Amino acid sequence: MEKNFLLFVFFVLTNISQAQVGINTSDPKSTLDINGNLKIRNVTSVTSVNSNQTILLRDKTSTTGDFEIKEISSDLLVVANASAYYASKSGSWSLLDLGLGTFWSKINLTGASDTKVGNPALFNTGVYTAPQAGIYTISYEFQFPAGVNLEALGSKRLGIIKNGSTIWDEKIFDGVRVSILGVTLASVPVTSTSLTSLVQLAAGDTITFAVNVSGLLPIDITLLNSAKVSLYIYKISN
User: Fold this and answer.
1) Cα gap 157→176, rounded to integer Å
2) How many angstroms from the chain centroid is the CA of residue 73?
3) pTM recorded for the entire structure
4) Model confidence pLDDT, tens digit, residues 138-174
5) Which domains does the chain have, with CATH numbers?
6) Which of 27, 88, 155, 173 satisfies CB 3.0 to 4.6 Å to 230 for a cystine?
C-alpha cells in the first residue's frame, strides 16, 4: 500500500513539473504564461557589461502575436574590445618618405612621445596598427598657427593610407581663391584642414597618416612642419 502511494505521488509531481502554468489565463502557451504585468523588486545593479552577460527583451511572435521573453548577447549592443587612440604634436616634427613613388610622405609622430590617449605601442612614425578587427572612424587634422598662404599649398593633400599602399581617402588643403577671368586676385590663408573617414580593418592592418608634398619647396615644407598635427582613430563597430 505504501509503495503504491509513493508511486502515485511521484507520478503527480512529475506531471506537475512538466505542466504549463498560466497566470490570469486558462490556456497557457508556455511553461509559464503570464497574462498581465510582471513586477520584480530588489534587482542587483551592474556597473559594466561584458561578453558573458545577456540582456532580456520582449519579442512579439509573428504567428500568434504574443510576446515572449528572449535574451540577446550584450556584444550586439556594445563594441567588444573597443579601442581608442589619439596623438598630437605642435610643430617640430618631420616627414618621412613613404616609398610609394607618388610624393606621399608620412608624418613623423611617434607613439612614445606624442600619444595622448591609448596604447603608444600601436602607433609609430605615423603608422597605426589595428589591435583587432572592426570598423574604425578616423580623424586627421593640420592646424597652422598663423595660416599658410594657399599659393604655397595649392593642390597639396592630406592622405589616409591603408596597409602601406592603398590610398583610402584624401583631401586637398582647405582654402579659397578669388579670381576674375582666370586671374587670381586673392587667396585666403589656410588655417586648418581636417580629413575624416571610416575604414574596415582586420587585426594587424595599418593606417598611415600622410601628406602629399609634390612640388613643395624646402621653405614650404618648413612651413608645413610648423603646423600642429592631431589624429585619432577608434573602433565603433565589430
Assistant:
1) 15
2) 19
3) 0.65
4) 999 988 877 666 666 767 889 999 999 999 999 988 7
5) 2-76 (no CATH), 84-237 (2.60.120.40)
6) 88
